[in-house]
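Data card: per-record layout.
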Amino acid sequence: MSSKVIAADRLGYAIGRRAILHDLSFAIERGERVVIIGRNGAGKSTLLRLASGMRRPTSGRLSVLGCALDEPVSRLALRTVRAGIGQVLQGTHLVARLTAIENVLLGGLARADGLAEIMSWARLFPPHERSRARDALSAVGMQRLADQRADRLSGGERQRVAIARSLHQGADVMFADEPTASLDPEASAQVVELLARLASERNLTLVAVVHDLRLVRPLGDRVLALRGGRLALSAPVAMASDDMLRDVFREIEGAGASPHSTPQPSVAR
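The structure for this 269-residue chain is written out next.
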C-alpha cells in the first residue's frame, strides 16, 4: 500500500472561466500533520473539497487513499474514500437535538451497511457501537457530557464531539477546516492541543486549514501555503520562518495594495 494519502500532480479547479486552483503538485504521507494557510479566497477549502470527493478537479491528477478522484468514480469507491476521512469543520455540523453520544454514533454510518444505517437513523445503535462511541468521547474528555444535547454544549465542547465522531468513524485521515474559527482563545488552544495530540498518538494523518498563523506550529509538522490558487510554499514547519509565513498573506505582486486588505497575521514565538 502506498504511503501517500494524498497525491496531486498539476491539480487545477475552475468554475467556468474562473480558475480557483492552478497546477498544484504535492503529496501528503501517512501520519503527517499538514497545515494549509493562505488568504481568503486562496483555494484552501476548495482543495479540501476536492480531496473529500465533493468536487472533481477540472485539470491535473488527484489521488486520495489510492483512489483517482480526477476520473469518474463509482459510488462504492467514493464512499470508501469518504469513510476513511473524518471531518472537523468550522460549524461542527452536529445534529442539535441529538445528544453528544448520538452525534458520535452517527460517525459509524460511514462504515455501516444498509440495515445498520437504517437502524442508526432510528437511534437503534448496537451495544458495541455505543461502547465504542463512549471510548471516543473519553478520548476527547467528553464522557461526562455524553447524554447532553448538542445545542446545550459550548463551542469548544461541540468541536470535541466532532473530533470524537471522527474517531468513532475509524478514519485514519482527519480534515480540519478552520476548526477554531468560532472559538474563544482558551477553547481554541484546547482544540488545537487535542487535534495534535490525537494525531500523534494514533498516527493519524491530519490536514488542517487555518487562517491564524499562531496555529501553524502547534498543529503541523509541514506547511502548505496557497497564494492566488497556486502553491507558494511547501516546507517543514521548523524551516518556515515567521517572515515566510507572513509573506503568503501579502498582496499578490502587481495587484496593488487594497484599503480593505486583511491585516498581517501574527505568528506565535
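Known properties of this structure: Confidence is low (pLDDT under 50) at residues 252-266. The CA atoms of residues 109 and 154 lie 25 Å apart.

See the next section for split statistics.
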